[in-house]
Amino acid sequence: MSSNSIFSQMDIVKIIRSYGINLIREGNRYYGSIPPVGQTGKSLHVWADTNTWFCNKNHVGGGIIDFIQNREIGFTKRQALEKAVEISGVQLELLSDEQIDKLAEKAEVYKTLTAATSAYNANLTTDLYSFIFNKWGITRESADEWNLGYASTERNLDGIDPKILIKTGLVNITDTGNMGGEFYRGRIIFPHIINGITQYMAGSATPDTPDHDKESKYKYLRIRSETKNEQISEFIQKKGFFGEDRLKNADVCFITEGLADCIVANQFGFPCLALGSTGISKECQEHLIHLLGKKKCVYLCFDNDENKAGQKGAITIGQILFDAGIQIKIMDLPRGSKKMDIAEFMKDKEAKDFELLKKRLLAL
Fold this sequence. Notes:
The chain has 13 helices and 17 strands. By secondary structure, it is an alpha+beta fold.
């Protein structure tokens, strides 16, 4: 039996409640508090559909195994799994050591990315919040809500296991296979957080980014392949979309090209996710169609630039969604001096201006 099929038979809500923690459902998630209970009693967020959790008070989270290890200090992964099986009452066919190792690796990788997200967020200063606002129009409240951060040009991730850092790609490796310098330096960090857990991230260049590293405006975590990045875990994958959690209860939603554009749209009350580019892989197409399948309408609001790459990408993706039975509309942003995106358009504007923009559609 695979680890995934085992966990599909488990109920994280039942497991958490077995530790005497009261959970109350609101919408598509549960809320409670890990003792000692805080002022709100809602610092613990639990997603039953994915068996994941995150505690804002203690800045920890993960899956079922992680929760049990949080409560049972000193438990190994196998002991935590056996405890989960005992509470859930499922029939367990013994996992191989290899499967247990994979289970542990996935948990450690996501836990490390989430810890790195907190470390980068803690680096934000008043000047950096001002930089983020002036560049994109993202408020301080939104920056913290989305857990944006900053990777300084010095060490940011001291205290995190070097072996796991290498697996995440957050550090480079030397010729001898040891930990080298950090992957992100002098960049604003955009973590891809799904159900409270960081699963991927990107870094946007700033004036402090080292000159040799300024070629790419956005720098994404590296992906393992058969020919390169063999040190990076197979669980570092760009499968989910930045902001996809914001679409769960929305009938009408929006898709942007850029990550900052996505935050700005949500900041003004328009549920939005970002693709991070003008195109997506076939695997990501299937995930996107699944996410959008029951929406009444999807607006594509890509950049309007000189080479028309954004508009061409919107038309291509729009056709894919249309062929899947999804109603789509492509917004036509006015041109700026060189290009226009949602973040630039919405500077010094209000939600009503975005509503008017929705009526400005690209003629197909």
